[in-house]
UniProtKB/TrEMBL annotation:
InterPro entries the UniProt entry points to: 4-hydroxybenzoyl-CoA_TE, HotDog_dom_sf
Molecular-function GO term, any one: fatty acyl-CoA hydrolase activity
Protein name: Acyl-CoA thioesterase
One Pfam family hit: 4HBT_2
CDD domains linked to this entry: 4HBT
The species this protein was found in: Kribbella albertanoniae
Domain of life from the UniProt record: Bacteria
Length: 124
């Protein structure tokens, strides 16, 4: 929380990471692909702050989806928001991820199996 009682801007990236990890790992594993769990690096974050979020006990909603898939990278888009009593968007964000082979210590291409799973998650 910052001096004005708002969620600190750096904390939003933690929220995005928690949602992305849960979304990708759980969803991919449920669909039979486990390589996304151990081999992704963040290449870029973009965060646009739309409204201040005051610190509170109630959870905030995070919607996320895959917006782009390329040969060796994909993009996750997000919104941090409330839907009740009226829709309020606090943050719009985007993360570019690259598959990484930690044993070989190099970037790798998205496999056909990963592409199939990611394709199911495109859009909202």
């Amino acid at each position: 929380m910052d001096a004005l009682g708002h969620v600190n801007n750096g904390k939003y990236v933690d929220y995005l990471q928690d949602a992305r990890v849960d979304f990708l790992f759980r969803t991919a594993a449920d669909l039979g692909v486990d390589t996304l769990e151990t081999g992704l690096l963040v290449a870029r974050h973009e965060v646009q702050y739309r409204a201040p979020l005051r610190f509170r006990a109630e959870p905030v909603r995070i919607e996320l989806w895959i917006s782009e898939i390329r040969g060796a990278q994909f993009t996750v888009d997000y919104e941090i928001l409330d839907v009740e009593p009226a829709r309020t968007t606090y943050v719009e964000a985007r993360t570019k991820l690259v598959p990484f082979d930690f044993k070989a210590n190099r970037l790798r291409r998205i496999t056909p199996e990963e592409r199939e799973i990611l394709s199911r998650l495109v859009g909202r």
